[in-house]
Specification:
The protein contains 3 helices and 2 strands. By secondary structure, it is mainly alpha-helical.
């Protein structure tokens, strides 16, 4: 090798092998479940759990010094979880608007016989 040319970085024998974070896979799976069940408002729970796991997995990846991988899975799972939350919120707003419109069309008050004050 010529002088000044750098080769591949040498690893210390005691360095651990890079490993994909298992939490990144769990975040992706929970995000996917949140997206699929979001319109039924059931996606709120898996999305919330996914968001909590994202924070933990990012802290662990930072603390590992680069030996925990899976950042792409984390980003994708987080986006899916946010989409599930948005779908659940949209469903709640639509159902509320439909309920208010139905309530506004319903007759209210007490019906009196004609001529009775």
């Amino acid at each position: 090798m010529p002088v000044g040319a750098s080769g591949p970085a040498l690893r210390h024998p005691l360095d651990p092998d890079p490993v994909r974070s298992t939490k990144s896979r769990a975040v992706f799976a929970l995000g996917l479940v949140a997206l699929l069940t979001g319109p039924f408002v059931g996606g709120v729970v898996p999305a919330t759990v996914a968001m909590l796991l994202v924070r933990q997995a990012r802290r662990e990846a930072y603390a590992s010094g680069g030996y925990l991988t899976g950042a792409a899975w984390l980003r994708c799972g987080e986006r899916l979880a946010w989409a599930g939350l948005v779908l659940a919120l949209t469903t709640l707003v639509v159902v509320t608007v439909i309920g208010v419109l139905n309530l506004a069309e319903a007759p209210t008050g007490q019906d009196f016989a004609p001529g009775v004050d």
